[in-house]
């Protein structure tokens, strides 16, 4: 039994702001609608974010939940090439890690996406998950 | 009628709008103006200035900011709290008193000065008595970089600022107090919150966190609905209207641009956040998972329900040390094949650096317009109309970094084609001042308060 799925871009579900603490970037992800927060809390795991950023970060990803703000906070360790003034990066302070986050695609069951009124649904490459 | 104290933010960092302090004082009623001048690197810059001239070492913009608001604050009794003192709060206060006298208000404004955060003169004594000041990120003891330390300051809390206000200061100047203490202190002073009124103190911290980055909570740098945020050219800086129970409304003066909204304030709440359950400050540990935000009319957001717990026995210490040199240069390559040309230039550049026998601790190449900030996530940048090739090096040897800076310009004539954007000339070699965060036992840091007029 397989279930039809759609691909939803995080850009269409959330807004973000990021900053730095040493070589760690923080990225807060805030659901655009409160009713979308449970989906983010379920799907946007630390492992999912770690896989998304891949080689762009050298350390682990930690996740904290703020249901009161319909938000998740991620700490991306080793994201800033040393951080602070040591870093040679354009984005040494992680200010636009926030927008790199928004490129992430989530796979959502099609009926759930319809119920939640998720915008801009892209069909999954294989259009189903087992 | 519930008593409300209005704390206005007029500066989010050293270099922020010169107009904001005056606009906050003149735009409507406020009780306190808070001005945050210090970032992690600022202290070391100020320390270098003080080494050249012992009367320097503070944020000089602050004197101009006070001159711009002086008649109004004298007339209306608005109080000002600022960490503009940097590494020389006493010199800052003295310059301020001279400016006040020059403006014809001698004796009318009492200036409080908070000192004791500067640990540089005590550093060897502290290390000798067993305070290792280990790097919070790497665990390395400070002794490994001791001979390169430029500045060392404990982040101090609101207590000495409250004392200065109680002693009648209208303007309080501090060194490295926490950004949030600048908002917290007036609230403790006005409402008499006890040192263990954890929930109220936590609310003061949250208000401080929302105000400390200036317009970043009133529409600036706001991603949510950014196209429709009105009139950023005349953006109003945020104001917290706080009640005795710690609940507050974030707003801005009428007739100003920008927007105070739930999404915008929420973006600021998550900015530079670590573990939201434990936002650690010298006064209290605030729990950001307790915060409730709700709309409260046009450009008004109500924030309430905040809880907190006892502070830790430590203060954070911000240490700056010399860490070699760096330089960054760039060239712009244009379509067709802009990214490929820039990548070819990079390969040539790196081979030349190798042939010169130059070695660095770090060499970083970026392709701005293609992959610089989003890496592989940005996909294929080959059709970009232009790509900026940006290469930086960092190392201990200044001469090697200097030599590197001579290798950019030649690429214009002896590298790949379609290159431009080199008008700025050779990149400048900069000394790297690195940041070393540490913790210290609170009991060894004692602050002093002086009130001058």
DSSP, total strands of chain A: 7
Helix content of chain A: 10-25%
Structural class of chain B: alpha+beta
Low-confidence stretches of chain A: none
Could you give the order of the helices and strands of chain A? EEEHHEEHEHE
Q: Termini separation of chain A (Å)? A: 7 Å
Give the amount of beta strand of chain B, in percent: 15-25%
Distance between the termini of chain B: 35 Å
* Whole-angstrom Rg of chain A: 16 Å
Query: Unreliable segments of chain B (pLDDT under 50, ≥5 consecutive)?
Result: none
Principal-axis shape of chain A: elongated
Gyration radius of chain B (Cα, Å) is 24 Å
Oligomer state of the chains in this structure: heterodimer
Average residue-wise pLDDT of chain A: 92
Q: What's the average pLDDT of chain B?
A: 95
> Which word captures the global form of chain B?
globular
Tell me about the biggest sheet of chain B?
A: 10 strands, mixed
Range of strand content of chain A: 35-45%
Counting DSSP H or I runs of 4 or more residues, the number of helices of chain B is 12
Largest sheet of chain A: 4 strands, antiparallel
Category from helices, strands and their pairing of chain A: alpha+beta
